[in-house]
């Protein structure tokens, strides 16, 4: 084992969480068998406790709490007790609880978007049960990842109806949260494809659009947890823009983090691991450092399939923590660097440099806007706009990341 830089680990560990399914992952893929030993939920919780990770997220199917597998919902009680005891003993709290809406063959043509109302009822009931379970475990969030709600053949489901069905289910879930007085909030996780050819809730923008379809009182209860670099990266989209949009919209519930080469399958590499993660990961850290200092970062990725040793999971946890510590340190130092500050100057300012407030006096604002006499000349003059110095900044980013700034 290469010694980990514990100062980096310690600087971020308090804000982190791990998806339990990621620690249970034994490395099997559609083309190959497992390479790591089979683990139970308790093994994963104990490992996190041992390493000092304060949070874990539970996926019902991975912790023996899938109501579609158990004989009835009452059969969940003893298992809840066992898990709570292990969590308590390990000093780990549940951050998020998520119902599996994608594994059972019944939802092969969608869960809440299925054309079959019986399937939609089953999915909704599982979603509401997840809210109960989250409350029971003291979790802060329930994530809905509708991985089977999508299509290979669009003739089957009317896409307008599909989104209306999501909104119907979400409205009921929100009403249930209010009725129960739950502290839990709902988070939507977007992903463009895999396991379906095209998943409806494909991107951060789609998730926000769906939230926009809800009544105002419901909108406040729902956020988005993007999975970066993986989910936007799979579609070749810009991860920094995705997180910026969520922060600007006040909808970043928490972050799922991992490594991904753009336009590949869902690699779920550990953070910073892989052939092309460096710059995009830096920009995510920059957004978090600048605008979301309290955002919980949950690693939703798994050890590479090359890692088959007994210590693969422990190494995986440490690799992620160290990499996050490193990138947060890099982001904070970059923001403070005099050359960067000099170039960026007032770059973050808003508005239009006009004294009149357009919200209070639009006429005065428009008058000032139109008063500039050199408008026509400026249109034809490249030098009329300040040189943004993008290339110089990129050099500074490179020098900084590669240790020469
Ligand atoms: C899948 C998602 C999934 C959710 C939880 O790609 O990342 O793991 O986070 O169901
Ligand atoms: Mg995820």
Keyword list:
two-stranded antiparallel ribbon; 9-stranded parallel β-sheet; 16 helices; binds magnesium ion; alpha/beta; globular; 405 residues; single chain; binds D-xylose
Number of strands: 11
Measured between the Cα atoms of the first and last residue, the distance is 29 Å
Shape: globular
**Secondary-structure element string:** HEHHEHEHEEHEEHHEEHHEHEHHHHH
Instruction: Please give the share of residues in helix.
Output: 40-55%
Helix/strand/pairing category: alpha/beta
Q: Strand percentage, roughly?
A: 5-15%
- State the helix count: 16
Most strands sheet: 9 strands, parallel
Mean of residue pLDDT values: 97
List low-pLDDT spans.
Answer: none
Ligands bound here?
A: D-xylose, magnesium ion
Strand order of the largest sheet: 8-6-4-3-2-1-11-10-9
Measured on Cα atoms, how large is the radius of gyration?
Answer: 23 Å
Account of the 3D structure:
This protein is α/β, with parallel strands linked by helices and 405 residues long. It is 45% helix and 9% strand. It is built from 16 helices and eleven strands. The chain has helices spanning 6-12, 20-24, 41-51, 76-90, 117-137, 159-180, 204-212, 216-219, 230-234, 239-248, 278-291, 312-336, 338-344, 362-371, 375-379, 390-401; strands at 16-19, 55-59, 93-98, 141-144, 150-151, 185-188, 198-199, 222-224, 227-228, 255-257, 297-299. The strands form two sheets. The chain has a nine-stranded parallel sheet. The mean pLDDT is 97. The structure holds D-xylose and magnesium ion.
